[in-house]
Amino acid sequence: MTTPPACPQCTLENTYLDGSNLVCADCGYEWSVNESGSKEDGDASVIKDANGNILSDGDSVVIIKDLKVKGSSITLKQGTKVKSIRLVGGDHEVDCKMDAGNFMLKACFLKKA
Length: 113
Hints:
- It is built from 1 helix and 13 strands.
- About 5% of the residues lie in helices and about 35% in strands.
- It is mostly beta strands.
């Protein structure tokens, strides 16, 4: 019997098969059996913007919605262009530097410029 793959979200190996889904007993994340094969092949690094365009390191993007920064009075305005992004893993996929500071943003609030 093969061992189920590690959880793509928390990377722990305490996973089990539940019907056609794999489930992580530690964090509760569920994903389909078909997804697990593509994640191991390196497709996890594919990050897409709000329009479905694939982003890569060094791209320039535009913010599509006003974003309030937690714990601060700063608001990142819609239409702000961000140059030289860096892709990272985790919930917030894009790391960038702007005049207002360094931020980690979700790709769903960005479009490729």
